[in-house]
Automatic annotation (TrEMBL):
Highest taxon, organism lineage: Eukaryota
InterPro entries in the cross-refs: KIB1-4_b-propeller
Leader sequence residues: 1-27
Protein name, entry field: KIB1-4 beta-propeller domain-containing protein
Pfam family of the protein (one): Beta-prop_KIB1-4
Limits of the KIB1-4 beta-propeller domain: 11-175
Keywords for the protein's UniProt record, in alphabetical order: Signal
Length: 209
């Protein structure tokens, strides 16, 4: 698994690769070998199969398997924990988590203009979206009334976000995983449903979780 970042101003490029659950390797232009470090704190990178990595503020960010935020600093080649506070997600924690333990879960991390969003999906349950408040460092759950026309586009390895797209406001669009799929699966927050429902079940069976 690798992620690439390019600085347009300096012309430098960093390639970040996840080799196992405990090591991280980086490679820069004109380098003759990879530089590999062992992580000195607990972070199960096995959870990277269930979420994506994003680049923002000159750092790489990802979520662990509980939804906590970590970042990698290319200049120092160190991983650090981001001290943010988040309400417990019922799909991963809390007294009701047993209801969802057998359902497939996936986490999505996306950044728009420096603002972080994370989304949890769990089987056919509704996606839960949180927005990070940079002043309080709290993750706040947002819904159809507070999404403000956001549209989230997801894939297995990256996610994008747009605002006020005609006929696509307050929605999440998932990737097409079959060549014969005529349309991608979406979730409409205003209507609180997946569309088309039958195709969502097929997509869930194909997700690499």
């Amino acid at each position: 698994r690798a992620e690439k970042q390019r600085n347009q101003l300096s012309g430098t490029c960093v390639l970040l690769a996840f080799l196992s659950t405990i090591t991280t390797s980086t490679c820069r232009p004109e380098a003759t070998e990879w530089v590999t470090e062992y992580l000195h704190f607990y972070l199960s990178f096995d959870s990277l199969k269930n979420n994506n990595v994003v680049y923002a503020n000159r750092r790489f960010y990802c979520l662990d398997n509980t939804g906590s935020l970590y970042f990698f600093e290319p200049s120092s080649r160190e991983w650090s924990f981001s001290y943010t506070r988040s309400p417990p997600c019922p799909y991963t924690s809390g007294r009701f988590s047993y209801q969802y333990e057998r359902k497939k879960k996936r986490f999505y991390l996306v950044v728009r203009k420096g603002v972080f969003f994370k989304m949890f999906t769990c089987g056919g349950e509704k996606p839960i979206v949180y927005k990070l408040d940079h002043d309080s460092f709290d993750w706040e759950e947002i819904n159809s009334t507070t999404l403000d026309g956001l549209t989230i586009f997801t894939s297995l390895y990256s996610s994008e976000m747009r605002v006020n797209l005609p006929c696509m406001r307050n929605s999440v669009y998932f990737p097409r995983l079959r060549f014969n799929c005529k349309r991608c699966v979406s979730y409409l927050f205003d209507e609180e449903r997946y569309y088309p429902r039958k195709q969502w079940q097929e997509q869930e069976d194909l997700c690499l979780l």
